[in-house]
Design goal:
mainly beta
Length: 322
C-alpha cells in the first residue's frame, strides 16, 4: 500500500499504476486499469473500470487530481467520470458476515446490520475476474462475478472509447444477470470535473434542459439556481462544499443533457445518455464540480441491461456544428 501521499508524491508514483492511453487525434485520455494488487483504485465505492487520470481536448483539461491526500483504499481517491452502483434493498437483505454484491467492485463482506456507508472501504471476499482489452482509441473492461450461496451473479462490460469523427468520449455499458435473483440497482456518474484546473466559481455554469427545482438544498449562499442553470455566486474556498438534490426532469432520456462551461478558459462539455434520469444531485468543492446523474435498472435472471453515456467536448463560443 502506498499510504497517504501528498499531491506531488502521487504524481511521481502515477507511472507505476497499470494504465493505458487512448486518442482519436483530437481527444487524448489516460486510463487507470483495475488490478487487485497494483491498481490505482482499490476501494469499494466506485466501479473499478474506466478510471480516467487525465483527458485533454484542444489544450483544455477536463479530469484530474482533485484531492490532497492519496491512498488506493480511500473511497474517493479517484478521478474522472467514475460510477457507483447502489443496491439498498440487497444490502438490507444481506445478513452481517455474508457477501454483498457491489457491481464493478466485487463481493464485499457486510460487517454489521448498519446501513451502507459510501465512505467506508469494506473487506473483500471476491473481486471477480477482470479482463481488459486495449485498442488505440478504446479500452474494454469485463468483470465476471458469481456466488451460488447468495444467488447473485453478473457479467459487466464497459467500453471507454473515443469517437472516430468527433470529439466525443463514449461510455458503453452492459450488465447481464447470471444469477438466480433479480438485480435491483441504480448507478450514478460522479463526474469529478477538474476543468483547466479552475476552482468552481462564477466562471462556471452548469446547465440542464429543464427548470431546476431544489430539494434538500445546501448551497450556502455560494451557488444558486437560476432557471435551468446552477450558477456560482463566488469561488469556493478550501474546505467548503455545496450539495443539493435537483428535481424538475421528466422520464425522457432527453432530460439527461448536462452542459458544463467555463467562460474564462472557453472549455465546455455536454453529457448525454440514452436512458432517463432517475435522480439528480449536484455537489462541488473548492477543486471539483459534480453534476451526478442517476440511472435505475431492474434486471431479471438471464436478462441484460445496456446504457450509454456520451461526453462531447467543445470550446466557446459554440459553433453551429456543435
Amino acid at each position: 500500500m502506498f499510504g497517504l501521499l501528498p499531491l506531488a508524491a502521487l504524481r511521481l508514483a502515477a507511472a507505476t499504476f497499470p494504465q493505458a492511453e487512448i486518442t482519436n487525434g483530437s481527444v487524448r485520455a489516460t486510463l487507470y486499469l483495475p488490478d487487485t494488487e497494483k491498481g490505482y483504485y482499490r476501494a469499494t465505492r466506485f466501479d473499478w473500470a474506466g478510471v480516467i487520470a487525465a483527458l485533454t481536448y484542444r489544450g483544455h483539461s477536463y479530469f484530474g487530481q482533485w484531492f490532497d491526500q492519496y491512498d488506493p483504499q480511500i473511497h474517493d481517491a479517484i478521478s474522472g467520470p467514475v460510477e457507483e452502483f447502489l443496491s439498498e434493498r440487497a444490502w438490507a437483505d444481506t445478513k452481517p458476515g455474508e457477501p454483498f454484491m457491489k457491481i464493478g467492485v466485487g463481493f464485499i463482506r457486510k460487517p454489521s446490520a448498519a446501513a451502507y456507508q459510501f465512505s467506508k472501504t469494506y473487506d473483500f471476499i471476491d473481486a471477480g475476474r477482470w479482463t481488459v482489452k486495449t485498442q488505440p482509441d478504446q479500452v474494454e473492461f469485463t468483470q465476471e462475478l458469481s456466488d451460488e450461496a447468495s444467488g447473485y451473479g453478473y457479467v459487466y462490460k464497459k467500453t471507454v472509447r473515443l469517437a472516430k469523427d468527433k470529439p466525443d468520449l463514449v461510455l458503453e455499458h452492459s450488465l447481464k444477470n447470471t444469477g438466480q435473483k433479480t438485480i435491483e440497482t441504480s448507478v450514478y456518474d460522479h463526474n469529478f470535473f477538474v476543468i483547466d484546473e479552475q476552482p468552481p466559481g462564477p466562471d462556471f455554469t452548469v446547465r440542464f434542459p429543464f427548470t431546476l427545482e431544489p430539494r434538500d438544498a445546501d448551497l450556502k449562499n455560494i451557488a444558486e439556481l437560476r432557471g435551468d442553470v446552477v450558477a456560482f455566486i463566488r469561488v469556493l474556498k478550501k474546505g467548503e462544499n455545496v450539495y443539493t438534490h435537483l428535481v424538475g426532469f421528466g422520464d425522457d432520456p432527453k432530460d439527461y443533457n448536462i452542459r458544463v462551461e467555463n467562460s474564462k478558459t472557453g472549455a465546455g462539455v455536454r453529457v448525454t445518455a440514452d436512458q432517463p434520469l432517475s435522480a439528480l444531485v449536484f455537489w462541488a468543492s473548492s477543486t471539483t464540480l459534480c453534476p451526478e446523474a442517476f440511472i435505475k435498472m431492474s434486471i431479471e435472471p438471464g436478462d441484460e441491461f445496456k446504457w450509454q453515456i456520451t461526453y462531447h467536448f467543445y470550446t466557446l463560443p459554440l459553433s453551429s456544428s456543435e
